[in-house]
Amino acid sequence: MNEIEYLEHLLPHRAPMMLLSRVIAIGEETAHCQVDISTDHFFYDTASQGVGAWVGIEFMAQTVGCWSGYQARQKSQVPPMGFLLGTRKFSSTISQFSAGMTLDIHGEKVLENNGMSAFTCRIEHQGEVLAHCQLNAFIPPQASLAAMTQETN
Questions:
Q1: CA 131: distance to chain centroid?
Q2: How far is CA 82 from the centre of its chain?
Q3: CB under 8 Å to 107, separation ≥6 — which residues?
Q4: Residue 84 lies inside a defined structural domain of this protein
Q5: pLDDT per position in the chain (153 positions), as tens?
Q6: Looking at the record's lineage, which domain of life comes first (predicted)?
């Protein structure tokens, strides 16, 4: 990726559901984003004083979404809306992410066929892997997405 794009150019999300803080790098088959955990994060729970590790699945999904949006922009297309189909083998070494942590979210494409995609994803903090999974997503072809949009209007 030659120039880091703003998240808003790559994802259809807006506050408060834009959970990522920044894009670090996007390649042909990989994406790297970061999340700053703070007490004002949308999913911060004051009772447990953290963001549940399960939210990491959405961090990973949004990182994959940035990858998809970047690929579309390289073809002069509008970043598509994708659908998280599920995860496999999600595992986390911690139950929550604490305020002050900066998380590195990595996604690597392992399969892409006819809109179906699979990515191996991981969340790191200071080089230590805290969570990982395989994420499965569907991104409708641009023509199908346009038809879906017209039907709902």
A1: 14
A2: 11
A3: 30, 31, 32, 60, 63, 64, 67, 119, 120, 121, 135
A4: yes
A5: 434 567 888 988 778 789 999 999 999 999 999 999 999 999 999 999 999 999 999 999 999 999 999 999 999 988 888 899 999 999 999 999 999 999 999 999 999 898 899 999 999 999 999 999 999 999 877 644 444 444 444
A6: Bacteria
Residue 145: what pLDDT?
45
- Whether 2 is in a domain gets the answer no
Q: Cα separation of 36 and 103, whole Å?
A: 6
Residue 1 lies in a domain: no
- Looking up residue 100, the CATH number of its domain turns out to be 3.10.129.10
Residue showing tokens 């994959």:
64
| Residue 110 structure tokens | 């392992």
Residue 106 in any domain: the answer is yes
